[in-house]
Amino acid sequence: MATDCGFEKGGEWFRYRAAAIIIEEGCVLFVSDGGFDYYYSVGGGVHHGETSEQAVLREVYEETGVRYEIDRLAVIHECFWNESDGCGGVRKCHELAFYYLMKPRGTKDLPGGDEKLLLHWVPVDKLGSVKAFPSFLADYLSGEHDGIEIITTHDESANERSENDMDYSLLISQLEAVTDGVDNNVTNLANAAALLYNSLEDVSWAGFYIADGGALMLGPFQGKPACVKIPRGRGVCGAAFERGKTVVVPNVHEFEGHIACDAASNSEIVIPLFKSGAVYGVLDIDSASLNRFSDGDREGLERFAKTLEARLV
Questions:
Q1: In whole angstroms, how far apart are CA 140 and each of 22, 99, 101, 128, 197?
Q2: Architecture of domain 6-156
Q3: CA 306, CA 217: separation in Å to the nearest integer?
Q4: DSSP 8-state assignment for residue 54
Q5: pTM exceeding the 0.90 threshold for the entire prediction
Q6: CA-wise closest residue to 30 among 19, 14, 18, 16
Q7: 158 by DSSP, 3-state: which?
Q8: Domain 162-309, what architecture?
Q9: Residue 271 and residue 302 in contact, taking contact as beta carbons nearer than 8 Å
C-alpha cells in the first residue's frame, strides 16, 4: 500500500497534499463524504516517491473518474490549525498543499470515481455563501493571476471554535425567523447585531456601518459606543468597504491605519454587505482576544451576511 508523505507524532500532524482547481461552465468542483456539512477540494496526500503533479492527476481520476490535464501550478498553500485528537487533547496540524489549475473539458458531466465521495459543482460567484474549503478560493477566483500565489493561513483556534462553527446554521435559521416578513433595514440589522452579540463567545462588539457616500456611518450595534464615521479605506472597516471583501485581522495593533474605537479590542472581522451590486455597508465584530476569528468563523459569518443581504430593501 502506498504511503502518504506525512507524519503524526506527539500531538503533531503534518501532510504534503496535492489538490485540483477544476472549473467548468463558471463552476468549481468540490467533494464531500456526506459525514460533514462542508465541501473540500479535489485532492489528497502525495504518496512517497510521487511528484505533486503525479499525485494530483491520480487523485482527480480516483475522485472524478476523468483524466483531466494540468494547466499550471496556481497556489502553494501552507496551513496551520488545531483540532481535537479524539481523546480530549489537541492535535497541532500543518499542511503544505500544491493547488493545480486543471484544463477545462467544456462539460460538468462526470462519471464519478470513489463511491464514498459526493461531487458538487459550486458557482464561482457563490463561493462566499457556501461552506467550502480552502476558504481562500473565493477571493482567489474573483481575480486574475499570472504566476504562482503563495498563501499562508493560521487558524490556531480551529479546535476551540469547531463546535461554534457548526452552530452558524442555527444562527442563520434564527436570523431568518426574526427577519421574516420585516421590510425595514434598521429593524433587521438591529436584530442581527443582537443575535451575533449574544450568541458568539468572546465578542466585545457586533454591529453594522452603513455606506453614506465615501464613508461609513454607524448603524445598529451591540456593545460600547463606537466611532460614528469611518472614511473609505481607513481602518479595518474602511478597508473592507473599499475592497468589497472580508477582512480578518488576528491582531488589530499590527493593522496599518487601525482606528481604535475600543482600546480593548485585539482582533476583528469585517464583512461587506451588498445591495444591487454595490457595498451597502459592513458587518463588524470585535474581540478582546487575539486571533479570535477562525476560517470557520469567517465562512459562517459570510453565510450569515449573505442571508441578511437577501432581507435588505
A1: 13, 12, 12, 11, 30
A2: Alpha-Beta Complex (3.90)
A3: 21
A4: H
A5: no
A6: 19
A7: helix
A8: 2-Layer Sandwich (3.30)
A9: yes
CA angle 255, 259, 261 (to 5 degrees): 130
The Cα 126–Cα 135 span in angstroms is 12
Stated as kind and residue range, the H or E segment containing 160 is helix 158-166
Can you give the length of the chain in residues? Answer: 313
Q: Which H or E run contains 164? A: helix 158-166
What residue spans of 200-294 are helical by DSSP H? 235-243
Q: Rounded to an integer, what distance in angstroms lies between the CA atom of residue 212 and that of residue 230?
A: 10
Q: How far is CA 245 from CA 128, 248, 276, in A?
A: 10, 10, 16
Place of cell 516517491: 49
Q: For 252-264, what is each residue's pLDDT tens digit? A: 888 877 777 777 7
User: What are the tens digits of pLDDT across the range 133-191?
Assistant: 898 898 899 888 889 999 998 864 444 444 444 468 888 889 999 999 999 999 999 99
